[in-house]
Amino acid sequence: MRDPILSEFLSRKGAVKRISALCGVTPSAVCQWNRVPKRHVKAIAAYLGISPVEIRPDVFGDAPKQITHVQTAEHRGAA
């Protein structure tokens, strides 16, 4: 299923051609996208005047960071 933001933009007349030129890919490649590849998000966001988070919150959003246990001097009880 295609990302709603991508679907909305690509439904505009001439959008596929503009995005393909902006990203240096063929229009048929753009038509195959279900979501914007992360290597193209910043360019497309700048072109649209929106935040990269709006296009790919999974990549550029404030997703919870995985916490890994790192044993520091404080955790070991050292002074």
Overview of the structural elements:
The chain has 7 helices and no strands. The chain has 79 residues and is an all-alpha fold. The mean pLDDT is 84.
Brief sketch in words of this structure:
The chain is an all-alpha fold and 79 residues long.
The number of helices is 7
Share of helical residues: 55-70%
The largest pleated sheet is described as: none
The tally of strands reads 0
- Overall form: globular
% residues in beta strands: under 5%
Sheet/helix structural class? mainly alpha
What is the element string, with H for helices and E for strands? Answer: HHHHHHH
Average pLDDT, rounded to a whole number, is: 84
- Residue runs with pLDDT of under 50 for 5 or more positions: none
- Write down the Rg: 19 Å
**First-residue to last-residue Cα separation:** 55 Å
Keywords:
single chain, 79 residues, mainly alpha, 7 helices, globular
List strands and helices in order, with pairings.
Elements: H1 4-10, H2 15-23, H3 27-32, H4 38-48, H5 52-55, H6 57-60, H7 73-76
